[in-house]
Write a structure and sequence with these properties.
By secondary structure, the protein is of the alpha/beta class. The longest helix has 24 residues. The two termini are about 30 Å apart. InterPro entries: CoA-transferase_III_domain, CoA-Trfase_fam_III, CoA-Trfase_III_dom3_sf, CoA-Trfase_III_dom_1_sf. Keywords: Transferase. Its EC number is 2.8.3.-. This is CoA transferase.
Amino acid sequence: MGALNGLRIIDLSQIMAGPYCTMVLADFGAEVIKVEKVNGGDDTRLTGPFVNGESVSFFQINRNKKSIALNLKTEEGKEIFFRLVKEADVVVENFRPGVTASLGIDYHSIKNVNKGIIYCSISGFGQTGPYSHKGGFDLVAQGMTGLMSMTGEKGKRPFKSGVAVYDMGAGITAVYSILAAYIHKINTGQGQHIDLSLAEIGLPWFAWESAHYFTNGTVPEATGHRHRSLAPYQAFKTKDSYLMLGCANQRNWEKFCTDVIMKPDWIKNPLYMDNTKRMENIELLESEIENILVLQNNTYWLTRCENAGVPAGPINRFDEAMQDPHYLERGMIQEIKHPVIGKMKTIGIPTVLSETPGEIRTPAPLLGQHTDQILSTLNFSKEEIRSLEKKGVTKSSSHLISALMK
């Protein structure tokens, strides 16, 4: 039994932030009912790559969920939705502010039928403020918050992060916010509205940058492969590749000098004697270290660092990371069978709970795969279910599942 068994979530979200949030909660046992558009469903279903016409991108972020295709612009569709949320604990949505109110499914409308509802809204700029009306995306947030001005090489074109950090960060923030609200609900019976903004969730991550800025007004610039405050804590070229070296404290630095590169005299060198001096002379320090590291290959230096207890690691390509024996042994690469895609690998669950571990139980659903099942639990007859589908209120793929199971 999962840690969140009994938690019922109605998921109106699509693309990445909301679906990642609800997938994490589903991994730990929450029941997630994904409410999708009748025409096309979650927009990620239209994003490749595709196998047999099904999106593998959608597959990767929507496991352990049920799908009901529902037209919320119809009164009948809205009535079905309210019957669902009446028995739910959480609603997650990522519409632009104002859309849920225009549909009549906003927090205050739902609170009238379920006072204990936890309603999580994820948007670009939040539900209030001068930018609340604007659409927001991960790239916009990366630019607006200053992240891109710090990423890449100084004086050159700003770089975005290699992954959608604010989308995923918003999903993670939504997870812990929902769990905090759920604990409050358990204690008091009271629900609440959670307002999350992509443009804000990442600001607290700038701990070192804000320390400098709020202390002396220093505006952080791009530092490329180097750390902003520690040295040497960065990428270095070796004979055959690159490695990351993390001398995050004086002890690491001294062990690196004595046991890895055999330069004990650097410890007392006035240019390198402490972190402040090493940062002041980073150009010279980097050059001198690299002149030594390029004499041997990555494996040689990583072995020496490991034996010396100095933090270091390779800079893997993604395919190398996916084949790393450590990740494989820890179960971070899983395989699951999908009714249309077939067997497909997916990233596993990074949190290991000793008593209630997460579990990948089912693959991402087909659009409307559980429509009939969910409507049946709401006491709709088979005739009513077929009538709703004919009128375009719902859509079901249960017939496809039945055919595939034969």
